[in-house]
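INTERNAL AUDIT FORM
Audit reference: QA-55
Scope: verify that the stored structure record matches its stored sequence.
Auditor: D.O.
Record contents follow.
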Amino acid sequence: MLSLILAIGLLPTSTLHAAAPPAPRTLSGELQGAPWRLDVPARWNGELVMLAHGYEPVGVPRETPMAAADSTQALLDAGYAVAQSAYSSQGWAVADAVADMERLRQHALDELTHVRHTWMLGFSMGGAVAVASLERHPQSYAGGISLCGANLPGDVLARDLLTTLAAFDYFFPKAEGLPAGGLLSSEAGALPQMALYQGIAAALATRPAESAQFATRLQVAPDALAGAISLHALVLHELAQRAGGMPAGNIGIVYSGFGDDAAFNAGVQRVQASAAGHAYVRDRLALNGALQRPLVIQFNHGDPSIVPRMQTVYPQLAARAGSASKLHVLPPAGEGHCGFSGAQVVDALKAASAH
């Protein structure tokens, strides 16, 4: 023991200090109009998480430098480096976000050394970004995780949103505080988000029975109905503006679940998709279910935004594509929309690692 103590005492000071862990670091910048940040914990495990955030309405002020997502600290505490992009555009920016995240991934690999695995993790709209990235760049990732994700091909999503707006206009025509042309009109797309929500909520209160039927059909709780409808209006009109025309149509669609379905189908407004709009959601927002890497999906209990009918879409795609073995759907956890704790986020990532 004495010889060991003497040997330690003879070590130079620089050798003793070399064992100290490196300090945590945060890097930030901008890549082709997309603000980004990269956080590396002091005790990095050699794994990189590309974290894709959810929907951000057009015009929402952005923090400079980019703020970290809520789940970042839990991932850092678990040893992961985390790279995040604010995306080069706001709104339903899935196509831009996939390109932005790929540029950031390449940049992060230049900043880091000896990355063992890279994972793609997305929340809400970012879930679609994660799934699309995994489909299009499988060689870049060990796997992916979509939490509370809008895992729908763009044309499927657009049709669902259109159904909501057409149904609202059928049940609540000429609602006070909303454009005379209803939620499907371009004037509705120009309304501020709060004014849109207030007009919808006031209209719903005037016809409780129809509102209850509507909530059942949309698979949301009655007290979440106004928020769900306003979100659908916001996203559809932003998509139409981004795509250069209405991205979905309902000519010839036979609806069900709206009470008197015969009267509903006879009276609901019919809309023709524009060629440009439909091409955008079909091609730029495509998902095909063909997975080459493991994908973990998890939802929350009682999510008013990603409801059960939406949650089944991607598993069905994966089954048709013959890649169901690559998809792992975890039991729901947490409440509401993206109501995951940091520990649950880390657990989902570990579940992907296990496959």
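Auditor finding: record pair retrieved intact. The longest helix spans residues 225-243.
Action required: none
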